[in-house]
């Protein structure tokens, strides 16, 4: 009998647009011979399934079920592709934990921590061979905070919202005159802001996931952008960025990054597929952590999809591995 899988998408933030694009690809590619897939749209106060006839069927939040044509549809598990809140920050995971429904992404605690860039860096700071750029985490903007930045950190700087993704609200600051506007831009997106020193290096992104109980590291993608950094436009506009998979690393760099990536995944107690972004510094080849994305995009051109294909694997089979790992872990916790 086919397992009933809820494909969760939508969201409460601007990233919902990307979430819908990812869900459309997952819905098209997922193995229909194995799974009966039902797409669930989650918006503030409006969780529902939209039928082919255009009927909106509300989700029963007592058990995350649907009533379709007089029959109750309950799910065996959730394929979570909801970027941002509440799918990536732990809120949805906490709800699924309470009703005992397994899901393909990280648990509530890991999801909440990894949405906070500053907290994530503090946890992984002691991983061998991994480097962290010097930074200051701000909870407010004041003359005192600005002075602390100028006295502690060296230009150029990256200013970014501490929570959230898709590089929204990010700026590169080359002079102190630019700092004020950059902080305003970041604080407009979040109540916490991370200010960190710029690392001159080649940028990469690498996928990591667990299958059959073992951590597997995919080939890294090298990000070569025509812009100064990998911002929202560079991520989602055609022709702005060149993505090379596998990325150009020598054997020592590749093996070192794979060791680091697996340790980061384990240290943060990740589940499902995540994507770690990092720099290899130009002068030293040291690996500098940027951030981790616990609900990476799943569009046809997304980095994870490129990396899966680079090992000769069908994306459909990759989704099957994620779902089977989820169902296996779900059974083991009951």
Automatic annotation (TrEMBL):
One of its GO terms (molecular function) is D-alanine-D-alanine ligase activity. It catalyses: 2 D-alanine + ATP = D-alanyl-D-alanine + ADP + phosphate + H(+). It comes from the Bacteria. InterPro entries: ATP-grasp, ATP_grasp_subdomain_1, D-Ala_lig_Van_CS, D_ala_D_ala, Dala_Dala_lig_C, Dala_Dala_lig_N, PreATP-grasp_dom_sf. The keyword Nucleotide-binding applies. Keywords: ATP-binding, Cell shape, Cell wall biogenesis/degradation, Cytoplasm, Ligase, Nucleotide-binding, Peptidoglycan synthesis. The keyword NAD does not apply. Its EC number is 6.3.2.4. PROSITE patterns: ATP_GRASP, DALA_DALA_LIGASE_1, DALA_DALA_LIGASE_2. Pfam families: Dala_Dala_lig_C (PF07478), Dala_Dala_lig_N (PF01820). Its cofactor is Mg(2+); Mn(2+). Residues 124-324 form the ATP-grasp domain. Cell wall formation. Belongs to the D-alanine--D-alanine ligase family. This is D-alanine--D-alanine ligase. It comes from Algoriphagus sediminis.
